Amino acid sequence: MVLAGIVLSAFNLRTAVTSLTPLLDQLEELFGFGSTMTGVFGMLPSAAFAVFGVATPAIAHRIGLERAALLSMLLAAAGLVARSMAGGTSGLLVGSVVALAGMGMGNVVLPPLVKRYFPDRVGAISTLYITVLQFGTILPALVAVPLAAAAGWRISLGVWSLIAVAAALPWIGVLLIERRKDSALARRHDHAVAAGDEAPELSAPPARGKASRSSLAWGMALMFGMTSLITYSMFTWLPKLMVEAGASPAFGGTMVALFSTLGLASALLMPAVAVRVRNPFPIVLACAACHVGAFAGLLFAPMAAPLLWVALLGLGPSTFPLALTLINLRTRTPAGSAALSGFMQGLGYALACLGPLLFGILHQATHGWLWPFAMLTASVVVLLVGGWLACRPRMLEDSW
């Protein structure tokens, strides 16, 4: 039952993002908002993940990982339903915030649940978790436009709430079983928790230094942040760019799905590659080249070879799983890993919020794509600087 809860919850962690972006062009016409508001919708995911990455541990320490997982799925379901019933831009915005709050909580509580209930299968369950999460990113983008054409945009946005409700049911079952103190689940739970702390897995060991004093940590934050900035900008704007180039809205959604599919491949392969390379900066250079090639193709000849441009665009964010892998490769202690992860993801997601919004402001101001892509190209330069600092073979504890 715990496994079912983890898998179903993982599927829900990105549905609010990619079920909306292929429909933003249609919703923009319906509700009359402009490119700047489209950028606001694009920045919400990274903003929610940053805020709830900080807030969720305190919630989980108080109510427990299992209840926090249940709460995350209930929030996701409620937000998705509210968004599908929206009568205007504010309703879409509020529903998105609630849904993404739940998904941001899920990002934090699912990995320690894997560690608590499957300590001897962490690698296998984590791979399953990542794979299902990526399928939950791909499928909504693929079916959003066809489903909206067949049943309306409200159904297209709201149908994903059913999977969030389904993900909540196993956690309800787990909590009911844990009330029976003679059950194996109750014994596992009681063994894991501590007095006054229902989620000790989320307690960071005390650090002897500050990550902010290390150029390694700043490099990691810049690499992670610029990768996320580019990724969420493209999640938001790729469908509209394709439609303006002459493609159908369904084709735009399919391109988002292809973009996400290549993210799955890199998420599964990059950790195995990174641990075998002393200095993985050549990988960062290759990712930057993919980004720049994709930007040039999408800007100057978007319909000449769209599959090629989007394939390059999907390979560029391989620096995301690389950054996550380097957290453990560039630290010696659990305290170092926790400090580096917190600094990297906190600052990184804060920087990522700017991407979709700036892209929209520049597009609205210039009525073209040149300056928005110039902004993304500048982000690639910052990514290279961060990658050079992050990839040099050294340890955080030596420089913090």
UniProtKB/TrEMBL annotation:
InterPro entries: MFS, MFS_Cyanate_Porter, MFS_dom, MFS_trans_sf
Matching Pfam families: MFS_1
Transmembrane region(s): 40-61, 68-86, 92-114, 126-151, 157-177, 216-238, 250-269, 281-301, 307-327, 339-363, 369-391
Protein keywords: Membrane, Transmembrane, Transmembrane helix
GO-annotated molecular function: transmembrane transporter activity
Residue span(s) of domain Major facilitator superfamily (MFS) profile: 1-395
PANTHER family: 2-NITROIMIDAZOLE TRANSPORTER, PTHR23523
Protein name as it appears in the record: CP family cyanate transporter-like MFS transporter
Organism in which the protein naturally occurs: Luteimonas cucumeris
Taxonomic path: Bacteria, Pseudomonadati, Pseudomonadota, Gammaproteobacteria, Lysobacterales
